[in-house]
């Protein structure tokens, strides 16, 4: 699993919110190294005025955290797949602690996420790691936790005029 | 609203009201499947990503800092804690309640329209 098409087999995220481009290294149950190229054509940079300062193009921290989290989800899903298992539900980003954002990435930079599993249970995982641009660390993620929830818990409340139940949610994992 | 003057995945707050004393702010956001990025999250089923609740809180804090610090811009430098407790789906209304201490630590709660707590977080900012 290294190329973009293979990532899409594991993650349900799609353009423009699929924020992992390629997997460089992966050790099931242990660690993953991924990259995400930041480009000026991404929607988050649309509409910035021509006279904006340089830091107006800092890649948003929310998307940086999402890209890190998707990398961790890939590691967990790949680990389950290697063990012959199927997630008993959908993966949800549940919590994070002690994350430091030291720097920023701008168009032209390539994010490199180094994510490690610090605790792995059947229905939850704790991740830790760093995000780099070249040899410059721009973020350190102390702890991020993802959990598996039953798909039903994410479905909208039944509406009276909605006879056909929507397809089960497939947030992270459970390739449709 | 200055959200278009710097990179942001979307306008993550529809309205922000900053308390006159500059220590708290409240914001609202209605989730719609036509919001930027949500076409991919997910193609068949819209869920407001948890990190977009983070983005909503960051944009709320920026509005508060701009008022309190004469137009200065706040930068997120740390996430002390972040917890997502309920999903926001297409059509859901979210409210953000935020307090910002003198040393720029924000505590925020995101609440869904039905009263259910959707997220809580404690964030650290820097003002340039």
Q: What does this entry look like structurally?
A:
- The complex is a heterodimer of chains A (176) and B (128).
- Chain A is an alpha+beta fold and 176 residues long.
- Chain A has one domain: Hotdog Thioesterase (Thiol Ester Dehydrase, Chain A).
- Chain A is built from two helices and six strands.
- In chain A, strands 1-2-4-5-6-3 form a six-stranded antiparallel beta sheet, covered by helices on one side.
- With 128 residues, chain B is mainly beta.
- A six-stranded antiparallel beta sheet of chain B has the order 1-2-4-5-6-3, covered by helices on one side.
- β3 of chain A pairs antiparallel with β3 (74-84) of chain B.
Set down the secondary structure blueprint.
The complex is a heterodimer of chains A (176) and B (128).
Chain A: H1 4-10, E1 22-27, E2 31-37, H2 61-82, E3 90-101, E4 110-120, E5 124-133, E6 136-149
Antiparallel strand pairs in A: 1-2, 2-4, 3-6, 4-5, 5-6
Chain B: E1 15-18, E2 24-30, H1 50-68, E3 74-84, E4 93-100, E5 105-112, E6 117-127
Antiparallel strand pairs in B: 1-2, 2-4, 3-6, 4-5, 5-6
Question: What labels would you give this structure?
Answer:
heterodimer; A: 176 residues; alpha+beta; Thiol Ester Dehydrase, Chain A; six-stranded antiparallel beta sheet; 2 helices; 16% helix; globular; B: 128 residues; mainly beta; 1 helix; 15% helix; 38% strand
